[in-house]
Amino acid sequence: MTEDPAPILSSLAADTRWLDATAQATLVADGDVTAVDLVGAAIERIEALDGPLNAVVIRWYDDARAAAADVDRRRAAGESLPAFAGVPTLLKDLWAESVGHPQTHGNVALKAAMPVAEYDTVLVARLREAGLLTLGRTNSPELGSLPVTEPISFGPTRNPWSTEHTPGGSSGGAAASVAAGMVPIANASDGGGSIRIPASCCGLIGLKTSRGRISVGPDKDESGLTVAFAVSRSMRDTAGLLDLVAGPSVGDSVIAPAPLRPFADEVGTDPGRLRIGVLSHHPLGNRLDPECATAAEDAARTLEGLGHHVEAAHPPVLEDAAFSERFMAIWATNMSLGVQRLGELLGRPLTADEVEPVNWAMSEFAKRLTATEYGAALGAINEYRRELQGWWADGWDLLLTPTLSEPPTRIGEHDATPDDPMAGMKRAAEFVSFTPPFNTSGQPAISLPTHVTPDGLPVGVQLAGAYGREDVLIRVASQMEAAGSFILPDATTIS
Q1: Annotation marks residue 170 as catalytic
Q2: Is pLDDT above 90 for 6?
Q3: DSSP alpha helices (H): ranges in 114-167?
Q4: pLDDT tens, 232-242?
Q5: Are 400 and 277 in contact (CB under 8 A)?
Q6: Residue 34's beta-bridge partner residues?
Q7: For residue 62, what is the enclosing H or E element?
Q8: Each residue of 276-288: b (16+ CB within 10 Å) or e?
Q9: Comparing C-alpha atoms, which of 423, 355, 436 is closest to residue 105?
Q10: Are strands 56-59 and 133-138 parallel, antiparallel or unpaired?
């Protein structure tokens, strides 16, 4: 953070600031700290640190304190507690309904109305069952449409590493809150990179799971582009939480293959000698920032040093220049459906002045698509998915790429202009090149914090695995973590 002087924290708030969720849960389970005190420490950090960042936009502290008191009561009574009992967290302000709590999806009209959810999503219910205690919601771009978090409704969220730069998006508020040490883990979702992008920008771990690994019920469709999970500080948190929230729910349209054993058991497991392809240039010949190329090349050398077979190789379909057009047809349709859904939540249609220009433009474009054109886009997407997954079926284990085409961009670079509402989306296309293909293919991919630029900005690398093979990603990522490859936000990198 660039603000000076640094906020003064109590000893507990300072001592637990950089602990991961597993360590914080252990403190509660062992009776070293009460859940009420642990939640209080997180609230203290949010109030002390969030001002210049604007990561947490809705708070429900009283509910969190009450839930923490219940954890302490159950522990005192000798009841069994879930793995993350008492650990503070935050929900994204986008498609993460939590019963009794408001949600705005980054929209100005919903911010004014603050509609309260009457149900939990499957994931939110499972996060609660895992013992996590939610303190509020993190900022998101309206409808999650852009890879930066700068909604008109709440204003921009800034990166704890440098407040002049974006924390990414759409889970930018989530990533900023974890990178600043407010909470150790936070809910995030990913429809085109929205877990991996902010993980890269904020120096965190961001796993996009396989399509159908975690139910997106009751309202969303697993066959679409989006999955929901979290950003974290450690592989043990990532794997441990995945075990607790993975699995289908009633009516799911896609169900990923069940793992052979708990994902937590994959942390520290020798992955064997894997065949890993490296893509350290832009597959379409566009500009790739040298720092991002360096990050991928350095990670390749690390993986080679760990005993893997590593060579320059990638799926040829990534060079398909028509992919972005097909992807945007689906993306624009999702935005149009999102605008319609927001209107349903308000009880009336939204007007043009209540929707950000980029999303209104995409919504109107989608309305002009014919059913035949949309069907053709779906067919092309399905063909692309099969071609991309075929590379892994041909004998490759992992693909290594930069997560992004450049380091975190500056605040305001993705704004619409008066004469071009799509200016931000066009800028986004330059920023985000490597993440959308795996939303299309449904494969798991993870961003890992392995590089920092000379200017002090984090740059992540992405590992993509075969469909359903989160286990391989977790083994290799934890192998890199154990080798000291990760550069996480802590007292040495964040003031």
Answers
A1: yes
A2: no
A3: 122-129
A4: 999 999 999 99
A5: yes
A6: none
A7: helix 61-76
A8: bbbbbbbbeeeeb
A9: 355
A10: antiparallel
One DSSP character per residue, 142-172 reads GGG-SSS---TTT----BTTBTTB---SSSH
> Tokens 């047809």 sit at which residue?
329
Which listed residue (145, 194, 280, 441) is catalytic? 194
Tokens 């930069």 correspond to: 402
Region 127-132 average pLDDT = 98
User: What pLDDT was estimated at residue 322?
Assistant: 87
Among 243, 244, 92, residue whose Cα is nearest residue 168:
92
Tokens in use for 308? 């893997």
Helix or strand or coil: residue 278?
A: strand
Among residues 140, 145, 170, 171, the one annotated as catalytic is 170
Cα(331)–Cα(335) distance, integer angstroms: 6
Q: Is there a contact between 245 and 270 (Cβ–Cβ < 8 Å)?
A: no
**3-class SS at 61?**
helix
* Residue of 177, 166, 163, 168 whose CA lies nearest to 147: 168
Burial 176-205 (b: 16+ CB within 10 A, else e): bbbbbbbbbbbbbbbbbbbbbbbbbbbbbb
Copy the structure tokens of residue 164: 């002049």
Phi-psi region of 265 (alpha: psi -120 to 50; beta: other; left: phi over 0): alpha
CA 495 to CA 490: how far, in whole Å? 8
**Helix and strand element counts for the chain (H, E):** 16, 11
- Assigned token pair, 127: 């996060």
Residues 110 and 58 sit within 8 Å (Cβ to Cβ): no
The pLDDT tens digits of the residues spanning 275-312 come to 999 999 999 999 999 999 999 999 999 999 999 999 99
What is the share, in percent, of the chain residues with pLDDT greater than 90?
A: 95
Beta bridge partners of 461: 402, 448
- Asked if the peptide bond before residue 5 counts as cis, ω within 30 degrees of 0, the response is yes
The answer for 33, left when phi > 0, alpha when psi is -120 to 50, beta otherwise, is: beta
- Of all residues in the chain, the percent with pLDDT exceeding 70 is 99
Amino acid at residue number 332: A
Three-state secondary structure call for residue 99: coil
* Average pLDDT score over the chain: 96
Catalytic (active site) residue 194: yes
Strands of 283-419, DSSP E:
309-312, 398-402
Nearest in space to 271 (alpha carbons), one of 470, 70, 492, 21: 470
Calpha distance 298→437 (Å, rounded): 23
Q: What is the architecture of the domain spanning 11-482?
A: Alpha-Beta Complex (3.90)
